[in-house]
Amino acid sequence: MRFKNIVLGVVAALLFNSAAVQAQSKKERVESDTSRYLLLNLALQHEITTAVDNMYNFDFHKAEVEFNWLKYNYPEHPLGYFLFGISTWWQMMPNLDKESPLGEEFLAYMDTAIYKSEAILEQDEDNMEANFFLAGAYGFQGRYHSEKRNWGKATNTGRLALKYLEKSQGNESFSPEILFGDALFNYYSIWIREEYPMLRPILLFFPRGDKALGLKQLETVATNAFYTRVEAIFFLMRIKAFETNETFEALRLSEYIFGQYPNNPYFHRFYARMLYSAGQMDATEKESLEILKRFDAGMEGYEEMSARYACFYLGAIHRGRRNWEVAEPYYKRAISYSADLDLEDSGYHIYSLLHLAEYYVEQKRYDEAAPMLSKVRNETKRKESTNQKARELEKEIKRNKK
């Protein structure tokens, strides 16, 4: 690991030097003085479009060459550091539960973006762009801490994000990027109150939002923004899938974004998930097999989390075909990956166990079924249908063993 870190450090240095060599020629092509704000610099957007696309397509090496160019040419601006932070975030996205040194790296990039933004505000207290990056950097840090269930830190960074969001609020005519923070606040300030009643005392310190307005704003950002467009689509996709139950709209969005970034493992597995939810089993099978192919090949970002999804879908598809010779090993792999990821209370793990146990009971392989049923009961509440089904199968085993 130490050797790997040294190599990465040397490579990073070479990339930075390479970017520096290219900087002057690129600088001439970017009209950096066209505006007080980089967010409004269309020539700059054109220059880094490919870099942003590479980042979301999980080609971080190519993306970060360009981000280094940004840091070199605009060393006192937060944009380069902010984009490095988002790049690091997406490297963690396939499995945010996994402990990784990338977490500290991500926080450090966002801290630097915050420092650079604060320095701008000291010279230009009304700078809209600095407020945007402060809200964005604190917002991403809050998102990270909430994923890690560090609720205290998430609340504190969220409060800071809101402070700067309020300074830029209502100025979406400046840039559609500004609207992204408004949209998330409007939607999730209500959603959190509804979904997490225990957090309501904390939320008394926050103003109320408007879910319907938040959705409309996200749609506007997803259509018109540059830096935050993909993030807006990400949130819209999840909201449509899991909160408003618009499965086919979520499928449409996931198909679009996966088509744009076909090497992004998160978008890939989300697309497969929506195909499965929509009952499009042939397409689900095709994408699940492709996910496993990429996982087995060690492709960037395709790890046990993605493989778990794919194996469950393939197990379920072949179960429906009564093709247990194929379904059984897929279910076993889904069970194994869930255990490795410490996700034994997840639906994918529980249903894999239950479906496989049903098959074993049918085949009178009771010694294999019994421990699986016990695990299902331990990971579910007594009133849940999966728990009830497990107890029924245990009774059937006892009857048949007499």
Can you tell me about this structure?
With about 400 residues, the protein is mainly α. The chain has helices spanning about 1-30, 40-55, 60-75, 80-90, 100-125, 130-145, 150-170, 175-195, 200-205, 210-225, 230-240, 245-260, 265-275, 280-295, 305-320, 325-340, 345-360, 365-380, 385-400. The protein starts with a helix and ends with a helix. The protein is elongated and about 85 Å long. Helix 3 packs antiparallel against helix 4 (about 80-90) and helix 13 runs parallel beside helix 15 (about 305-320). It contains 19 helices and no strands. About 75% of the residues lie in helices and about 0% in strands.
Kindly report the average pLDDT value. 86
* Helicity, as a percent range: over 70%
Largest sheet: none
Low-confidence stretches: 1-35
Radius of gyration: 24 Å
β-strand amount:
under 5%
| Contiguous helical run count | 19
Q: What would the principal axes of the Cα set say about the shape?
A: elongated
Q: Compute the separation of the termini in Å.
A: 56 Å
* Helix-strand sequence: HHHHHHHHHHHHHHHHHHH
Estimated structural class = mainly alpha
Overall number of strands? 0
